[in-house]
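User: I'm writing a tutorial on reading structure tokens. Could you give me a worked example: one chain, its sequence, then its tokens, then a sentence or two explaining what the tokens reveal?
Assistant: Sure. Here is the example chain.
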Amino acid sequence: MTSIEIKKKLINKISQSDDKVLLKSLYTLIGDESKKKTLALSEKQLLLLRKAEKEIASGIFLTDAEVKKRSAQWLGK
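And here are its predicted structure tokens:
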């Protein structure tokens, strides 16, 4: 699907929707670029992000399926 086709489908869906929650969510997601703020992180947060990136690069992570399986086991399902 081309970008133009995607845009047309989105415009059509949005124009047909009366779901205020959905429309507000979409607006927040793609809202005014000029209002986007840069998030300032503390040194500790930056350190944790760097550590997580190293773990991911080393293959130390769980897939979504693994997390769901463990959660189900933990919850006794």
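What the tokens reveal: The chain is about 65% helix and 0% strand. The helical segments are 3-16, 20-30, 43-57, 64-74.
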